Amino acid sequence: xxxxxxxTTTRDLLKGPDGNLSFVSAVDAVALLCxxxxxxxxxxMVYATDQGMPMRTTAFDTFNPNQFEAAARTIILATPDVTGxxxxxxxxxxxxxxxxxxxxxIYGAATVTSQ
Length: 115
Description:
By secondary structure, the protein is α+β, with helices and mostly antiparallel strands. The chain contains three helices and five strands; from the N terminus they run E-E-H-H-H-E-E-E. The strands form two sheets. It has a three-stranded antiparallel beta sheet with strand order 3-4-5, with helices on one face.
């Protein structure tokens, strides 16, 4: 079963009541992994410079929503235990980029957001 360290809404590591790290598993873990993979920018990872979101070419230099969505879908589908992307929506209010993806996993459905 997929498992990862939980995180708070402010992206800090999640601690349990005993003060130890708290883990999430199954569909919640897969959703967190998808979000982390989308947030990793291309050329950011030292040992995988060809992986990650091409933020510069899809969002920063020129906003290209179709290319961003295509890259995000590819990254999501490459995440272990993901079986499909049911929907993906993208908005750019001002200087922010917000997305919502509904994914299918072997554990059930989940929503992945930029928030």
